[in-house]
Design a protein that fits this description.
The chain contains 10 helices and 8 strands. Helix 9 links the parallel strand 7 and strand 8. The chain folds into 2 domains: 200 residues, Alpha/Beta hydrolase fold, catalytic domain (Rossmann fold, 3-Layer(aba) Sandwich); 41 residues, no CATH class. The radius of gyration is 19 Å and the shape is globular. 38% of the residues are buried. Helix 2 crosses helix 3 and helix 4 runs antiparallel to helix 5. An 8-stranded mixed β-sheet has the order 1-2-4-3-5-6-7-8, sandwiched between helices. 39% of the residues lie in helices and 20% in strands. It is α/β, with parallel strands linked by helices.
């Protein structure tokens, strides 16, 4: 069961993905990486399903081996593109496994194209505005005010200002900054309410990028959602050092879906 690298193309937009595993298995797993990553981020967990499922590890357009979209896409655009891709595949019981940004797209996919996924396993899911403490809100407002004041000056390098005050993701985004700006400002609360499939939300207790409180709120919005918090893990260790715990939770989720089938 070797790994194949394939490409999907629609209207000139190409998406690269890896495929491995048993095509005759009862489950097809689509693995959707986070912002600034590519399909290799989820490969260590996906490998545990090589013998018991067909695995599709995608590089979202603009990441990995997939070229950037010609326009600045939001998560709905990514979801519609992925839906077109999934429609080219043979029918299967399909599970979308996302991390961070991949969860945003998964939420949109399940809401906009409910027949294409039977379940969502969302790891460190983003998609709701963070709830910050008063001190944190004041710090952010002060930083924004300083940035705007400096930009208003008739002198100075405006690009360097953006890099100085922007987040780490913003500084690293390069040609993807337009898409990043669109994505991070989305509030998917209404989208979450539309989801009808089974959903498992997995968060690390030490995650400061997408804190567990986001997962608690998503679980309240999604009708059929289960929330799990893994002690001591953060936004990235849920995929590497703590991946065995994450894989165990995914296995339990799949078993529960099989019992209901």
């Amino acid at each position: 069961m070797s790994t194949e690298t394939r490409q999907y193309e629609q209207d000139g937009q190409v998406m690269s993905y890896q495929c491995f595993g048993d095509a005759e298995a009862p489950f097809q797993l689509v693995w959707a990486h986070g912002w600034g990553q590519d399909c290799t981020a989820l490969q260590p967990i996906a490998e545990s399903w090589r013998l018991s499922g067909q695995n599709l590890l995608i590089d979202f357009p603009g990441f990995g081996a997939s070229p950037r979209p010609a326009k600045d896409w939001g998560t709905a655009d990514y979801a519609d593109y992925c839906a077109a891709f999934l429609n080219t595949l043979p029918p299967a019981r399909r599970l979308w496994v996302g991390h961070s940004f991949g969860c945003r797209v998964g939420l949109q996919l399940a809401a906009r194209h409910p027949t294409l996924v039977n379940g969502l396993c969302l790891i460190a899911a983003a998609g709701l505005p963070r709830r910050r403490s008063l001190a944190s809100r004041l710090k952010v407002k002060s930083k924004v005010a300083l940035y705007k004041s400096l930009r208003a000056l008739p002198v100075g390098d405006k690009d360097r200002l953006r890099e100085r005050f922007g987040s780490a993701d913003y500084q690293a985004a390069g040609e993807m900054r337009g898409i990043l700006n669109k994505v991070v400002n989305e509030d998917l609360s209404d989208v979450a309410r539309e989801i009808k499939c089974q959903v498992k939300l997995i968060y690390g207790s030490a995650d400061e990028e997408t804190p567990p409180e986001i997962g608690h709120r998503l679980a309240q919005l999604i009708p059929a959602a289960e929330f799990v918090k893994l002690d001591g893990l953060d936004h990235y260790s849920v995929l590497d050092g703590g991946r065995h715990q994450t894989a165990f939770q995914l296995k339990r989720f799949v078993e529960a879906m099989e019992d209901e089938a």
